[in-house]
Amino acid sequence: MGNWIILPCNGIGNPLSTVSRYAAYRAAELLAEAGTPVELVGIGRVLARLAPWVDKVREGPVAVVEGCSFRCATRLLAGLGAKSVACVYIPEVMQSLGLGRRGLDRKYLGPKGRAIVEAVAQTIAGVVAGQLPAQQEPKDDAKRCPCSQAAAAHQVAVQDPTE
To answer: Is 4 in a helix, a strand, or coil?
Structure first.
């Protein structure tokens, strides 16, 4: 296994997708400060089936950050024959803090959003560093993920422009 990979969900117009991305950035920063090598992988590269990025998530280990019950990142990995080692589900972290979605904005996180970002980042960093147990992926709740459905319908060969 290589370095840890953090794969945040991308969400569409959902404030928790913004939390997911910021928390992934912050977790990577915390882990780098602690000397743990990690790599952030944008879900778009995996969704586009860019070979180097698909290979990275298949080789793992991958920590997925999910913002909603669609669990797009987890489903995308499953569609590629990959699996996350850890899954941090933002609503569970929010529930542990006693916070709800009211007042969150995807463009401006504000104090509440930043507090959630920090808690999620600390959770991701704790899981990756082995200080917290890896959260199990929740059971399939039969919701259909718009991202993974689109990916399955539009599988195309795309060459990585960085090659």
So the answer is: strand
What are the distances in angstroms from CA 103 to CA 16, 99, 121? 12, 10, 20
Q: By C-alpha distance, which of 155, 126, 149, 163 is closest to 71?
A: 149
116-163 residue pLDDT tens = 999 999 999 999 888 877 665 554 443 444 444 333 332 333 333 344
Q: Which two tokens stand for residue 44?
A: 């778009």
| Whether 12 contacts 74, CB under 8 Å | no
Per-residue pLDDT tens over the stretch 57-72: 999 899 999 988 888 8
| Domain 4-151: assigned CATH number | 3.40.50
Reported residue count of the chain is 163
Domain boundaries of the chain, sorted by first residue: 4-151
Residue 103 is classified by DSSP as T
Q: What's the token pair of residue 22?
A: 């910021």
N-term to C-term CA, the chain: 23
Helical H segments across 8-88, by residue range:
15-33, 43-47, 51-59, 72-79
pTM of the entire structure?
0.79
- The per-residue pLDDT for 26 is 96
C-alpha to C-alpha distance for 129 and 76, rounded to whole angstroms: 24
